[in-house]
Amino acid sequence: MHICHINLARGFSGGxxxxxxxxxxxxxxxxxxTLIARPGNPLLEAVAELPVxxxxxxxxxxxxxxxxxxxxxxxxxxKGVYWGLIEQWLRRTPYVITRRVDNPLGTGWVTRQAYGKAxxxxxxxxxxxxxxxxxxxxxxxxxxxxxxxxxSVDENEVRRIREEYAGKILLGQVGRFxxxxxxxxxxxxxxxxxxxxxxAIFLFLGExxxxxxxxxQAQGLGNVEFAGFKDDIGNWLAALDLLVFPSLQEGxxxxxxxxxxxxxxxVATRAxxxxxxxxxxxxxxxVSPSDAGALAEAIRSVLADKHLRERLIAGGDDTLPRxxxxxxxxxxxxxxxxxxx
Length: 341
What we know:
41% helix; Rossmann fold; 6-stranded parallel sheet; elongated; alpha/beta; 7-stranded parallel sheet; 2 domains; 13 strands
């Protein structure tokens, strides 16, 4: 079996990390693989030490002349979907799509063709599956969730972070500053909790286009800090007392899994695929999207109740095996074999 992974993303974020996780797991199982990615994408460097052939491709209409001896193409991002469709037109090579976001599909003819002709459209959550089927009823869909990445942790560095914020309760939100990630809602909750939980500090770990607007909104709040993008995000996650995940729209929410791996309780929203991970009161707390008051109250309740925190952490421990990289890879291998048999 030879799998060609196509990921034409311009940067390296959650989808690219999941692509890398899968490639690593398949390599450990002896699967022959090729990765096609944009020139300069960190994915290319990340697989350099793995037994994976690589090709560079800057656009989905390019890179088709040479062909390849792969049996199946796995499209990991939106542009890669069209690369897979063109290969299917040219060589009848079957392709699989992984759809990672729950925003609506385009309704144009090419998009409908791409999703309709895929041998399978893998959706990270039931919410994404519903979105795909709403637009392309003929799409052959299947749910395979993301895996946790297992970010490395240096206990000395975790200790240093805790010492830097000695006496503080660390509430973190991790990810790019995008409107649908709900940072503005977190800031409203922070304003409500500033006097009620004076020892708590909200750390925003990331960067992005909404940063300036969020910093303006945060003016005057003494319990908010913009800590920037962190290469060692595992250390920062491990140092948190609580992860805040208030997305208005979310494909699944793999950062929740990373927090659970570090035994950090989670307060999140009932948005997109998040309820596929979190069962309210069992392994986290869920509130309605955009409800800053409910978010503040959920945060306060976790901070105030040691037994609740312990219960949510234990629930996270029980949840993680369903989202392991090994289980994710086995699900994809089973899918590949089913398509090629």
